[in-house]
Design a protein that fits this description.
Elements (H helix, E strand, L loop, with lengths): L2 E2 L2 E2 H10 L5 H14 L4 E4 L5 E4 L3 E7 L4 E5 L20 E5 L2 H4 L2 H16 L9 H10 L1
Antiparallel strand pairs: 1-2, 3-4, 4-5, 5-6, 6-7
């Protein structure tokens, strides 16, 4: 498991979740949704200290804010989004602002996760992606 600030990634994320304040239930719900939906995905902290999930490449991540949790899809611009949940104008990244634990239960959010994982399986990311094997190798050398 990759590490950050001398801690195992999962432990660091546990502490991040514990500090989420009024967004704690939303963060816990998102984390649970990703784990259930993407069986076998690996949870890690990216170099920008964003809790993230890898399944043949980074699929998503989350950041807490005062009024919502930003649920980030690294390849969101390529995802079908018939419900119009995705926001953003970047070349590839899109996000969903998740405000309540009830928002986590929206079927459209789960569909985005499934589609993002399918896209990674079909066409693994190239370029600036921080590869899980590189993260594992770095940890092994420590």
């Amino acid at each position: 498991m990759p590490t950050i600030e001398g801690k195992e990634g999962r432990v660091w994320i546990d502490e991040y979740v514990a500090k989420a304040g009024k967004q704690k239930d939303v963060v816990k719900g998102l984390r649970s949704l990703v784990r259930r939906t993407l069986a076998g995905c690996e949870e890690y902290v990216n170099p920008w200290k964003i809790p993230s999930f890898d399944s043949n490449g980074t699929v998503c991540g989350f950041m807490t804010g005062k009024e919502h949790v930003t649920f980030i899809f690294l390849r969101g611009a390529a995802l079908p989004d018939p419900e119009g949940l995705l926001e953003g104008t970047g070349k590839s990244v899109r996000h969903v602002k998740v405000r309540t634990a009830a928002d986590v239960k929206k079927p459209a959010l789960k569909k985005l996760l499934v589609e993002a994982a399918k896209l990674n399986k079909r066409e693994p990311m190239k370029g600036m992606k921080v590869d899980m094997n590189k993260r594992r190798d770095k940890v092994a050398k420590q």
